[in-house]
Backbone:
């Protein structure tokens, strides 16, 4: 088994504990929000925030991996800078200190002297985590450390994390918004080829105990390397078999709908009208809207939908690498939408998979790591080819290239 993957799973669970801890007290949480600086902002959002949870998670992942695998910490890249400004105007470089007491001292500066909150967070940060998975334990594979790079999105869907809605109802298992859409994403790629090799998606807020109001999460992983493909998921549970779906749609009606519109898709609420119009002809009513690039990708991983499609250039390498690696391990992948629409399906050319080692030429700031052509996440290559043929058929000529 790759010891690196095992450690990434442990550190993702520690990260999930931090995310949950930061949400326990609303008054505390309001202290943790800071507007991002210009170079860090995602142009999709008018106001883009980072939280102390974002920064803590990223730094904990970096430092833990560096401690276990010297040299690897320098090859971990993410969305957030580790600078934080407190109410006293002090700029603090957030890092994981060697001892819990030192971390308390650093957090105390960030949290404007709130020692109680600093102690609670420091305890979570320095807590040891043990992760066990029989499927993972059975793997014996060694991936050279020197070829690895790591993309991290410490808290994907920060807006949903800040908003903190825990009572959103799902639509056939898919949450349109809420804490369930928050994910921690860790993707490992080959720095020479850009191919994703390992992925971890941790969903910190899956179910809430109504008595204690505490949340439990779920972690998913996948590995694809040199012909070895393994992942943490059992055969996917189709939405066709969920009790929610069965209570709403009769078997005959469902079968008829699926024959007419064989695909289901998850999209962003901001998706372009041309894509939505074409999708409605391909998928009918089986189009779901959801927050968070990581969560929408997870919906494909879990088999809740066939396709995640996004035509804009406001997702980034840290948004897609983790899910891409898991999907590769399952026989799927993640491709550049624009290149797919320009590609002749009969050409025999390989699908244009997203790559993770080279930035966009001429771009600056976060834009150099944007998925410029949009993306499609899928679980089956054969299914994707059929989907693309149908999508191209229904896209207007002008819209097919925008």
Residues:
């Amino acid at each position: 088994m790759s010891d690196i993957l095992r450690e990434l799973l442990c550190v993702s669970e520690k990260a999930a504990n931090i995310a949950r801890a930061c949400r326990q007290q609303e008054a505390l949480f309001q202290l943790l929000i800071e507007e991002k600086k210009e170079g860090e902002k995602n142009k999709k959002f008018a106001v883009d925030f980072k939280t102390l949870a974002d920064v803590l998670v990223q730094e904990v992942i970096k430092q833990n991996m560096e401690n276990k695998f010297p040299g690897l910490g320098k090859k971990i890249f993410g969305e957030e800078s580790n600078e934080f400004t407190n109410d006293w105007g002090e700029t603090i470089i957030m890092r994981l200190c060697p001892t819990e007491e030192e971390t308390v001292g650093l957090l105390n500066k960030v949290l404007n002297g709130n020692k109680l909150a600093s102690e609670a967070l420091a305890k979570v940060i320095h807590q040891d985590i043990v992760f066990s998975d029989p499927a993972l334990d059975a793997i014996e594979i060694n991936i050279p450390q020197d070829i690895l790079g790591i993309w991290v999105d410490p808290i994907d869907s920060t807006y949903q994390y800040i908003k903190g809605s825990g009572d959103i109802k799902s639509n056939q298992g898919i949450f349109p918004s809420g804490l369930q859409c928050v994910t921690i994403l860790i993707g490992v790629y080959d720095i020479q080829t850009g191919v994703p090799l390992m992925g971890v998606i941790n969903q910190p807020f899956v179910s809430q105990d109504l008595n204690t109001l505490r949340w439990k999460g779920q972690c998913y992983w996948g590995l694809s390397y040199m012909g070895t493909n393994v992942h943490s998921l059992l055969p996917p549970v189709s939405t066709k078999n969920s009790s929610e779906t069965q209570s709403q749609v009769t078997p005959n009606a469902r079968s008829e709908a699926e024959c007419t519109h064989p695909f289901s898709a998850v999209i962003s609420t901001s998706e372009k009208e041309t894509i939505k119009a074409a999708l409605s002809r391909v998928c009918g009513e089986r189009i779901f809207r959801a927050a968070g690039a990581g969560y929408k990708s997870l919906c494909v991983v879990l088999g809740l939908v066939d396709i995640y499609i996004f035509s804009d250039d406001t997702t980034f390498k840290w948004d897609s690498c983790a899910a891409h690696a898991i999907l590769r391990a399952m026989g799927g992948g993640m491709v550049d939408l624009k290149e797919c629409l320009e590609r002749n399906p009969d050409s025999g050319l390989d699908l244009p998979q997203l790559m993770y080692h080279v930035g966009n030429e001429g771009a600056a700031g976060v834009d150099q790591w944007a998925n410029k052509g949009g993306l499609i996440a899928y679980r089956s290559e054969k299914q994707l080819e059929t989907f693309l043929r149908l999508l191209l058929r229904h896209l207007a000529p002008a819209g097919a290239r925008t």
Summary: The first helix runs from residue 3 to 21.
